[in-house]
Amino acid sequence: MPALTLYHAAPSRSSLVLWMLEEVGEPYDVRLVSFKRGENTRPEFLAINPMGKVPVLKHGETIITEAAAICAYLADAYPAARLAVPVGDPRRGAYLKWLFFGPSCLEPAILERAYPRQQAPPRAALGFGDFDSVVNVLAEGATAAHPYLLGEQFTAADVVIGSGLRWGVKFGLLPARGDFTTFLARLDARPAYARAAAHDARLQKQQEGG
Fold it and tell me: Which domain holds residue 204?
């Protein structure tokens, strides 16, 4: 029985963890959680994640929630996959910056664009500042990526930022700029991403089928 189990809704934010697991290359199980049937609000699931959301990763007896945290955990837990920048490496600062930029800046900025408020809050009140600043930082990162955010090494940061960027561009919530689409094309060409996307499509059919 695999040591790793992903609680997943297909597709959802947890799809990026599915990709990360394929990059890690270790055996894993998937337990589908149906939001339509309210499985995420049942006591047995809330005992695992009181937030009532996915992803949740179980590694042995350890439970990890929050997508970026799961990616960081997996990168550290399986160093042979070389998905982390180790402590002491001067690139680690940029690695951590991008890992946290995803959930703290990129996703909130996209959602702010998707669901605009009647009255915009002051810039200082938002952790991401403003939408244009987020896009500009992403553009700088995508342009400087050779071929990935940290250079030649593909890391968990590429999974987190690439997933958010792909989602934003797909739904027209981020501009389909050339620097974004070029960076995404490199990520989409990774065999692990192709496997994850195909697996997610199968899981979606399974979930919709009941």
Answer: 4-82+192-208
